[in-house]
UniProtKB/TrEMBL annotation, chain A:
<feature type="transmembrane region" description="Helical">
    <location>
        <begin position="230"/>
        <end position="251"/>
    </location>
</feature>
<feature type="transmembrane region" description="Helical">
    <location>
        <begin position="263"/>
        <end position="286"/>
    </location>
</feature>
<keyword id="KW-0813">Transport</keyword>
<feature type="transmembrane region" description="Helical">
    <location>
        <begin position="190"/>
        <end position="218"/>
    </location>
</feature>
<feature type="transmembrane region" description="Helical">
    <location>
        <begin position="21"/>
        <end position="39"/>
    </location>
</feature>
<dbReference type="InterPro" id="IPR001626">
    <property type="entry name" value="ABC_TroCD"/>
</dbReference>
<comment type="similarity">
    <text>Belongs to the ABC-3 integral membrane protein family.</text>
</comment>
<protein>
    <submittedName>
        <fullName>Metal ABC transporter permease</fullName>
    </submittedName>
</protein>
<dbReference type="GO" id="GO:0071281">
    <property type="term" value="P:cellular response to iron ion"/>
</dbReference>
From TrEMBL, chain B:
<keyword id="KW-0812">Transmembrane</keyword>
<keyword id="KW-1003">Cell membrane</keyword>
<feature type="transmembrane region" description="Helical">
    <location>
        <begin position="6"/>
        <end position="28"/>
    </location>
</feature>
<comment type="similarity">
    <text>Belongs to the ABC-3 integral membrane protein family.</text>
</comment>
<keyword id="KW-0813">Transport</keyword>
<feature type="transmembrane region" description="Helical">
    <location>
        <begin position="60"/>
        <end position="78"/>
    </location>
</feature>
<dbReference type="GO" id="GO:0055085">
    <property type="term" value="P:transmembrane transport"/>
</dbReference>
<dbReference type="GO" id="GO:0043190">
    <property type="term" value="C:ATP-binding cassette (ABC) transporter complex"/>
</dbReference>
<dbReference type="InterPro" id="IPR037294">
    <property type="entry name" value="ABC_BtuC-like"/>
</dbReference>
Amino acid sequence: MDIQEYFSLVFSDYTLRTITLGTAILGAVTGMLGSFAVLRKQSLLGDAISHAALPGIAIAFLITGAKDSNILLLGALVSGLIGTFWIRGIITKTHLKSDTALGLILSLFFGFGMLLLTFIQKQPNANQAGLDKYLFGQAATLVESDVWLMAGVTVVCLFVLLLFWKEFKILLFDADYTKTLGFNTKFIDVLITTFIVLAIVLGLQTVGVVLMSAMLLAPAAAARQWTNSLGIMVFLAAIFGAFSGVLGTAISASQNNLSTGPIIVLVAATVVVFSFVFSPSRGLLFKQIRFIKNRRDLELHKTLAFMYHIAETHEDISHPHTIKILNNFQGYTRGTLQKLVKKNYVTLDGNMWSLTEEGFNTAENLYNQQSTSNE
Amino acid sequence: MNSAQIEIQLIASLVAIACAIPGTFLVLRKMAMISDAISHSILPGIVIGFFITQDLNSPLLIVLAALTGIITVVLVEYIQKTGLVKEDTAIGLVFPAMFSIGVIMIAKNANDIHLDVDAVLLGELAFAPFDRLEISGVDVGPKSLWIIGSILLVTITLLLAFFKELKVSTFDKGLAASLGFSPAIIHYGLMSVSSVTTVGAFDAVGAILVVALMIAPAATAYLLTTDLKKMLGLAIGFGALSAISGYWFAHWLDASIAGSITTMLGLLFLIVYLFAPSKGVIAVMYREKQQRTEVSLLTFLLHLKNHTEKRERHVNHLQEHINWQKVRAKTVLDLALKNNMITISNDIVSLTKKGNTFTSKAIDYIITNEDTQIEDMKEDFFLFRG
């Protein structure tokens, strides 16, 4: 099946439609919430939470003995929240730093989860097969009810986001100020963290524990490059996330042996790289272009200043000089000379150059432009 | 206990020790999450190495995988240097991408590769004794024991040789640079050791649990001491202890050894986190409570100092005036009595000489913030210990 065939099948085939819809919604909601995680400098929290959710899944299964994905996700949510608040406890109560706290909770919870999973595998219960799909995710196991659940969470999340938009925004950029204004910062903080945990837990089934953090970060990091406005960033991140979901599903469906999760992550990573390079204001490409342009301008100024110092010693400022004397000056090239001619600062006559009145005046004011423009 | 069991415990302990040493420095340098990134992103290196050598224990594979780890570090630093995103975002972007590439490479060649992601991520220590190293026909022990043993040997040698440099550059980068140690060389040296250790340990305990073995013992030790040598020693001890107790726990539960070692590390951390003498949660909470009481005591003494009228110094009146609850007022009163700062006669509270000087001294300290005046008070009061 190639990609074209996939797009013609998307609307008719039940499985493909469900999976595509699921990954698109998931990408959108994680992108949206990921923007907050990235801006709050909690990028790696997603990684820690997704790992910390594993024991919750195992314990939920041990208690109920059934593989109802809603109950398992509830377990994951509880354990993810415990992990998150323990991380916060470690950071505030001890002198351990946030990276240590994240790494600790991530690995300890995950290890404990693995212990439980291997313990479950030894149990005489036919139901246990398939729990390990939460490790790497299997988009193919998505059914319609899962997609409805995701859609429901997305709607609630959108609603809360719009309702508390102002509070989220101000907490993001100036937490202390928010407190002095009388907002209940703890509540807002817990609210946004809970939604981030919720989004991560939802994604476990699709992309798995290990790759979930990229789903949260990549769309947001890409969106950040294109705008400085929070609203646009959240919107763009949602678009990028949904795009990665759909394209990733399309690619993995059109090839054999390609699991969906890693492909989605790689598509999202490509979007990030593209944004890093081609974003007009922050991108590396345009930054380099601006850098080169600035250097050229500076060299032009240097040549002009050099000429000015020569012309200064003559009574007639337009007294012609040979081009040769510019030769052992590093700012000089034939190109810069041409540019100066074009700007009408210099006139050329064979091998001789002379400064014009305009060029002389410009050069004179080259280094006090700042002060004159301020007056 | 048969010989396979002893070998497993030996391997587990060596892995734990080999991880604890670089882990201590990672925790101190606030780079703990780098170990997580390395442990994930070595996957493509392992896969490529496996394509070439067809042997999970070959030295070339270890070198290739370690190289991928270093590439990750360089990549993270490059992205961070562009200033487009923060460091943690850079880490979070690089390793899932690398890991995905590894997973896809495995999936695409699933037919002719005996390597699955579970094995790389989770490892299986129980099988380690079956892969034996034979030198000219003589069985000299499990391969992974030799691998991790040599890695540990190199790590210890490097640690002893460069201990001073590591110490200085960890705590004061500027000083290290001005003394002529290149921080970059030490940084990349540490990163290389971490990568190699991660690779060496991955087939025993799995990539993710390497992170636990690196961070948890060091973090636990850091809660107990602030001396680098003691911290290293404690971390090694905690690592080895969890490795052995974890093995027996897994044996009893018939579950994953790596998972149970991590669970032991988690329990150990939880205990220390709660009960550590000066930095544990309970100690911190007790200290905060004590400090609160002592602030109240000071307020109370000040009140007494400012009022000579009997009416203001009546026990019941104090309760109303400073607006404390009964229990609180009683604790403060008891504390003051115990320290001989007040005397109570006929329910009238009056300051003793000691109480008087204490109050003036404390107020002096609060105003001038000069430490020397209150040296003798630090013993008895948490408030002045900073």
